[in-house]
Amino acid sequence: MFALVANQKVVIDWPCFWVVLGGSFLPRGVYTVLLFKMQFMLLFSRQGKLRLQKWYVPLSDKEKKKITRELVQTVLARKPKMCSFLEWRDLKIVYKRYASLYFCCAIEDQDNELITLEIIHRYVELLDKYFGSVCELDIIFNFEKAYFILDEFLLGGEAQETSKKNVLKAIEQADLLQEEAETPRSVLEEIGLT
Amino acid sequence: MALKIVKGSIDRMFDKNLQDLVRGIRNHKEDEAKYISTCIDEIKQELKQDNIAVKANAVCKLTYLQMLGYDVSWAAFNIVEVMSSSKFTYKRIGYLAASQCFHENTDVIMLTTNQIRKDLSSPNQYDTGVALTGLSCFVTPDLARDLANDIMTLMSHTKPYIRKKAVLIMYKVFLKYPESLRPAFPRLKEKLEDPDPGVQSAAVNVICELARRNPKNYLSLAPLFFKLMTSSTNNWVLIKIIKLFGALTPLEPRLGKKLIEPLTNLIHRSFSSRVLIFICFGFFKLAHKKSFSDVIVSLCYITVLISLSSGMPNHSASSVFLRISVVKYLGLLAMSKILKTHPKSVQSHKDLILQCLDDKDESIRLRALDLLYGMVSKKNLMEIVKKLMIHVDKAEGTTYRDELLTKIIDICSQSNYQYITNFEWYISILVELTRLEGTRHGHLIASQMLDVAIRVKAIRVFAVAQMATLLDNAHLLTGNMQRNGICEVLYAAAWICGEFSEHLENPVQTLEAMLRPKVATLPGHIQAVYVQNAAKLFATILKNQEGNTDSTAAQETSQMMIDRLPLFVQSANLEVQERASCILQLVKYIQKLQQKDVEVAEEVSALFAGELNPVAPKAQKKVPVPEGLDLDAWINEPPSESESEDEQPKAIFTKEEPKHSRPRHTEVDEKELARRREARKQEQANNPFYIKASPSSQKVYQEAPGVEHIPVVQIDLSVPLKVPGLPMSDQYVKLEEERRQKERAEKKKKEKKKRKEKRSGRGKKHDSGPESEEDITPAHVVDIVTEEMPEKSSKHKKKKQKKEKEEKEKKKKKKHHHHHHHSDGGGEESVQNGTVEEEEPLTFLVFPLPRKVCDIQGNLQDGSQVVVSVIFENKSDSFLKSMEFNVLDSLNSKLQRPEGSGPHDGLTVPFQLPPGVSNEARFVFTVQSIVMPQKLKGTLTFIVKDSSTHEKLDFKLHFTCTSYLITTPCYSDAFAKLLESGDLKSSSVRLEGVNMPFHHLLARICFHHHFSVVERIDSCASMYSRSIQGHHVCLLVKTSGQTVSIDAKCDEPTLLGNVLDEIKQTFSQC
């Protein structure tokens, strides 16, 4: 029924990276704040369908559409083994593919590509934790949740919280609030039904 | 009421929720747009209902549609409604929708101010958090102004969750409403020491961003950040702080020095933290510190290189988070940063970088190309270009190929063809490049051809032969002209063949090639050059043929011209038409004369007489205005002004006339000047004989308008475009190799000789290490035309030099920086070394403290005269008068005295000296031989006014050999010829422990010993000077570490020996 490869699990190969490069540059378990400036973040599928977009710079809808179209084309045209960075207009584009989804960020020239890769990965990890083996369909059907997680993680293009635990705690508590609010309604619904 | 709620709930049952919408869209692949438009209609219905749950659901769906690219701005008000719901569930959806859909121009934002304020002060931290998050996306200047205070209060909220968000959002507020910065800053600074590390980092983040925009204001925070940097263990905070210091260091240089140590520690500590290392690179790039410790470079560098070269062999690519390409890219990036400061260390990795050119990834290839530009040297240029040429052949996609082409030309032509040793090779590279199909850079190649042919005289024969072949095979180039600009090359080819036609082997054939009917299909500006140069060629041919007894050949040529030229007379291009008809008439006339057996060749070639010399753009400025010439003065008396003024009131109807008749010199205003300048520039740009300052500005030829309109016969070429008969550039690589080997062999021979000499007690030791950069001598030499070297173009060379000399003298006198004072005997004696070029102190014993400074200058006009300018300064308190200057003549040098005076009489100094005053007097000496330095003893007698006593002052005048040298500029080609001539004797000297930069060293030699630098390549320079009697003195100065070796050649060995001794002395003193 679904044309997309939906149930493929996102492979997290982060630990391998630690082994390869021989160490960590992000102290684990410590409250850390990622420091960088992002212009926008796009999530799109291999078919070029946009799944998520977050803009941290004010642009008109027309411009946003144009940029999205152009970028999706450029990134999709690149072969799997090519490098994750490209220079585009006066921005640097950092992208990474997880299963069928591309995560793509634009940063300014002075910003660091590696941190951005780290951000992307951190976000994927968060999604994975929240949904439990996240797949593309999770993001499609719960896109507002994906946004909420992103908003807890990044604020105005700056990373505000890297501790996964903290982000998830905040999201869970907010969800709890939401459920509390929803409970009376479901009761009403039952009344409505009966 | 209850019923209404129940009704709403029932309605909701049938509403689509988000999941339904998404599913629906996926099921309607074919008619998605139609399906969505029905959905939007449903949403509109839902938004009209009172039930907030229904509304929220609708807004949620709209947010999804907005992402798919549908316009939802019409629902802005409904979004605000949902935002203001008291329930967190709906509020959350509302704020999300707002953050996605709203932008600065959304007018409903004004309505949200109070709602947001309420949410910010909500007791529920998540309400506040959601509001802050949303605000960060759609904050406007108005919102920023209204809410700045509320957010500022939140910065001291009890919950770190809120504090953190508030601090971060303050940055956005500052951007929108800068006035808030001042009141908020103290609190922000406080947050740097917040107990919660998250808040602290947020504050660092904001301040660093602010500082990046305007570093000056944040210098005062440097100590605080310094403390943070040494104490913090958080790499991410460190990265930001280092970045901040990168911005601060240019403003406060002392900071850079202070930072080296903590930074080195940091890098040691987190050796594997690549991010930090790259940031450190960035910092050093910004800081431009010379104290940039080599340890850091090599450290960072090795890390990068290891990963680059080894490509992580132990792990299969699939499991590697960072792919090899990523590391490669970063490695190249880092290298380009290091290249600026440490070019040598990058150069050793040339092969690695060349390998990157093979990479599939274009971003890596382009990075590698950038690097190559910076790392070429004489030694590796040919090799690199050869590799690039291979890539040009292989490259797919014209953009990358064009990029390669421009890079090849850039690399070769950088800094005045500094790295090209063999121009024949370069010409053949250019010719090979013309074979590229579909390139846009024809004009670039053309301008390079012109430039090289004009400036490198030795190459002209070869270039002309190549260009003739090109012209002969023009049809291959113009085959698919519509698509490519390569036919621009023919412009250069035609011009070179015409201008230097005397070098042509077979001019008649070339002339024939230039007048082929196919030429008419070329763009107009090229045709014009063809026609004009055909005429030049014609003149040369006539000249050649006229010597022969058989005049039919010459007449045949004329006939050919007459037959072929009408084709161009009909050209649609005005320029072509005009030139062609002009030349046609000329040839007809010549033919008539030829039939009468009149010799015309001389006159015809007079049309194109005169050699072309490269002229620097600012040359005219350097030509001094001859004395007595007032450029502003009228040559003819202008019509008197009063006349026209008188006329004006009378002649009402002819008012304009006098205005026209009078030159309007006074009315030239700024605008007019600018316009004229522009016009002149335009003119220069269109003049191929005019050489611009930089090669890039030589893009003289614009895209020919109307190329498309010229009918072109398409030739389908199945064979690769290879112009027959042209040599391949590759063979030059081989030739060059051979040449160098030969040179090396010669050098070795020399060395052996030297060694032998050494054994016999003479000669200097030579390094016999591997071939170094400076050993490669260019096969051809370029006339370097920079802005500073216009002499060649100037007829006023002599005068100018004189002027320069005078100026230099003046300067020297201002810079008396060798003041050795020491006391001797009873009185104070100041030993002055006035001639800066004279290193042995020239002693002036000054009793009543007049100070004397002296400058010895050779007289250019007269080979046997030396002018000594002496500055007398009265340092005493008394008035000095009746000064007499006398020198004891030697056999070799004599003071020139006025006629009639005896050989021992003194010369009266033509002035008196009040206390504290200085004045200059000049004395002329006649010198016979200049090869030896010598000292003359002299006395100065004077009367001290107050005491009326006769005082005497003894001094010594030291004529060094250097003072017989005159700074004479020399061109590298002349210099090479001079060295080749072989009648110079050589000698060498070695200076140890010279601890100064190479350019200082050169400047010192130039300044103290009157040399001029001919050419400088890295740590090697050739210098030249000339003595007043016309001896040439050539120096080759090389430096390695603290050792400087000077190889010198001169036609007078004694003079040379003395000059070298003096140079040695100069450096032994420092």
TrEMBL record, chain A:
<protein>
    <recommendedName>
        <fullName>AP-1 complex subunit sigma-2</fullName>
    </recommendedName>
</protein>
<dbReference type="GO" id="GO:0006886">
    <property type="term" value="P:intracellular protein transport"/>
</dbReference>
<comment type="subunit">
    <text>Adaptor protein complex 1 (AP-1) is a heterotetramer composed of two large adaptins (gamma-type subunit AP1G1 and beta-type subunit AP1B1), a medium adaptin (mu-type subunit AP1M1 or AP1M2) and a small adaptin (sigma-type subunit AP1S1 or AP1S2 or AP1S3). Binds to MUC1.</text>
</comment>
<dbReference type="InterPro" id="IPR022775">
    <property type="entry name" value="AP_mu_sigma_su"/>
</dbReference>
<keyword id="KW-0813">Transport</keyword>
<keyword id="KW-0168">Coated pit</keyword>
<keyword id="KW-0333">Golgi apparatus</keyword>
<feature type="domain" description="AP complex mu/sigma subunit">
    <location>
        <begin position="38"/>
        <end position="177"/>
    </location>
</feature>
<dbReference type="InterPro" id="IPR016635">
    <property type="entry name" value="AP_complex_ssu"/>
</dbReference>
<keyword id="KW-0472">Membrane</keyword>
<dbReference type="Pfam" id="PF01217">
    <property type="entry name" value="Clat_adaptor_s"/>
</dbReference>
<comment type="similarity">
    <text>Belongs to the adaptor complexes small subunit family.</text>
</comment>
<comment type="function">
    <text>Subunit of clathrin-associated adaptor protein complex 1 that plays a role in protein sorting in the late-Golgi/trans-Golgi network (TGN) and/or endosomes. The AP complexes mediate both the recruitment of clathrin to membranes and the recognition of sorting signals within the cytosolic tails of transmembrane cargo molecules.</text>
</comment>
<dbReference type="GO" id="GO:0030121">
    <property type="term" value="C:AP-1 adaptor complex"/>
</dbReference>
<keyword id="KW-0968">Cytoplasmic vesicle</keyword>
<dbReference type="GO" id="GO:0005905">
    <property type="term" value="C:clathrin-coated pit"/>
</dbReference>
<dbReference type="GO" id="GO:0035615">
    <property type="term" value="F:clathrin adaptor activity"/>
</dbReference>
<dbReference type="InterPro" id="IPR000804">
    <property type="entry name" value="Clathrin_sm-chain_CS"/>
</dbReference>
<dbReference type="InterPro" id="IPR011012">
    <property type="entry name" value="Longin-like_dom_sf"/>
</dbReference>
<keyword id="KW-0653">Protein transport</keyword>
<dbReference type="InterPro" id="IPR044733">
    <property type="entry name" value="AP1_sigma"/>
</dbReference>
Automatic annotation (TrEMBL), chain B:
<dbReference type="GO" id="GO:0098943">
    <property type="term" value="P:neurotransmitter receptor transport, postsynaptic endosome to lysosome"/>
</dbReference>
<dbReference type="Pfam" id="PF01602">
    <property type="entry name" value="Adaptin_N"/>
</dbReference>
<dbReference type="GO" id="GO:1904115">
    <property type="term" value="C:axon cytoplasm"/>
</dbReference>
<comment type="similarity">
    <text>Belongs to the adaptor complexes large subunit family.</text>
</comment>
<dbReference type="GO" id="GO:0000139">
    <property type="term" value="C:Golgi membrane"/>
</dbReference>
<feature type="compositionally biased region" description="Basic and acidic residues">
    <location>
        <begin position="734"/>
        <end position="748"/>
    </location>
</feature>
<dbReference type="GO" id="GO:0010008">
    <property type="term" value="C:endosome membrane"/>
</dbReference>
<dbReference type="GO" id="GO:0043195">
    <property type="term" value="C:terminal bouton"/>
</dbReference>
<feature type="region of interest" description="Disordered">
    <location>
        <begin position="631"/>
        <end position="694"/>
    </location>
</feature>
<dbReference type="InterPro" id="IPR010474">
    <property type="entry name" value="AP3D_dom_metazoa"/>
</dbReference>
<keyword id="KW-0333">Golgi apparatus</keyword>
<dbReference type="GO" id="GO:0048490">
    <property type="term" value="P:anterograde synaptic vesicle transport"/>
</dbReference>
<dbReference type="GO" id="GO:0098830">
    <property type="term" value="C:presynaptic endosome"/>
</dbReference>
<dbReference type="GO" id="GO:0006623">
    <property type="term" value="P:protein targeting to vacuole"/>
</dbReference>
<dbReference type="InterPro" id="IPR011989">
    <property type="entry name" value="ARM-like"/>
</dbReference>
<dbReference type="InterPro" id="IPR016024">
    <property type="entry name" value="ARM-type_fold"/>
</dbReference>
<keyword id="KW-0007">Acetylation</keyword>
<feature type="domain" description="AP-3 complex subunit delta">
    <location>
        <begin position="668"/>
        <end position="802"/>
    </location>
</feature>
<keyword id="KW-0653">Protein transport</keyword>
<dbReference type="GO" id="GO:0048499">
    <property type="term" value="P:synaptic vesicle membrane organization"/>
</dbReference>
<dbReference type="Pfam" id="PF06375">
    <property type="entry name" value="AP3D1"/>
</dbReference>
<feature type="region of interest" description="Disordered">
    <location>
        <begin position="734"/>
        <end position="837"/>
    </location>
</feature>
